[in-house]
Request: fold
Amino acid sequence: MATDPPSDRSENVTPPPTPGGDGLLDRTTEAVAGVLNDAAAGVGSLIGGVAGLAEGVAGRVVRSVDELGESTLRLGVTGLARSGKTVFTTALVDHLLRPDRLRGLSAVAEGRYAAAVLRPQPDDDTPRFDFEAHRDAIAAGQWPQPTRRLSQLRVSIRYAPRSFWARRLGDTRTLNLDIVDYPGEWLSDLGLMALDYAAWCRAVWPLLDTGAAGTEAWRSLTRASDPAGPQDEALARRLADGFGAWILAASPDDWAVRRIAPGRFHDPGDLAGSPLLTFAPLRPDAGEPARDSLWRLMERRFDSYKRYVHSHFFKAQFARLDRQIVLVDLPGLVAQGGEGLGAFTALLDDVLKCFRYGRAPWPWSLLGRRIDRVVFAATKADLVPSDQHDRMTGFLDALLFAGMNRARFDRAAVRTVALAALRTTTEQTVRRDGAAHLCLRGRPEGEAGDVLHHPGSFPASPDHLGDAAQFRPLAFAPPAVPGGGRALPHARLDHALEQLIGDALT
Reply:
């Protein structure tokens, strides 16, 4: 590149230093000027930092208060596959739109709950939760299809504040409740974020011997593949395809496999066909393979997968939660007889460690969100007679004690409840051998008429799983939809709602 010739103008030429004190004075002046310039730059950086902080605070305030009199809460419905997230979200929205069955929600009981409507969700790049289709499926006596992608819905609730003068003046406010739904298999990805590729391979390797029939060829190929061998895209795809088939062939109740399985191998979503899903475990005794080895290729893609999960799933959705409900299908879990209970607990605890709980003091609460209220819910309580629901909550308290205790230590408000977002049974007392037994009446799935059923005794705690052999729950179909615009029947959904949003409606 050509450069301009030096100028011959005298003001652009640096004069030679003058002898004696003038040179010292010039050098001193330059040093002082440099110090002042550095100080000015430091002040500028400080001002810029404060400006950035103020911008972040302002953004937080704008997100929290959409308009005058409107506030926003982001509710996370957390649960593994088959925990009932889609049914819970559908029933929750249905009850907010038709609150006649929510007498346990103080705003309803006190006559301050005016109405709720559906509004467009705030994130334009997230699909809408198809509430109407799921509600129609239930009305037709069918269970909604499991969620296969991330979706979102906003319910805006108009209510009157509890303040006497606000009510006298006719003041009303709006709470925007944003709810996110996602495939339950994706939740296991959160636990993987704490592992590097080598640690993940060490966790997977002992499970290869437990593979289902039809996966022997992949397991043999995996054991024979040399981690230090050259990068081979065709081999990488064969290993990844076989690994995905091995995951899908595992039993839905094999929680040890579920714990180490990347969630997108179950439901790829927008990653179908992506190199992000072209990785698999290799022998964990690879040592230090070369940069161009098969191990490094798999390691790089595993790390890229984790970065994608963190930025597109956790950071974009879960890191922004204000409230959370954790759903656990206890009847289904106990009916397995305790097999896999330890792996299930470890998986869910891995997930719960990823969330930030507690109440941050003001003004630090403006800088980032924390989950300050959480409900741990034993779902499908309608499959257990109500006189045993205390056993369900006690069981759940013991099962998830570590996660609950961490949340309480971080000053989050925690509650445990046994609930049925959609109650499929009614109760009837039956006398037999001089004793009264509370039984369940409902229509089993695949049958035309109702039956009377008693599932047996629910164990009092995980330490009493020997009693689980006597517990046999029955799967029931959705009940007939009540007429007159009434909401779906439930059990204690209103109690969970009071814990989750009751304070926001005051």
Summary: The chain has three domains: 32-64, 70-182+317-505, 188-314. The radius of gyration is 30 Å. The chain has 16 helices and ten strands.
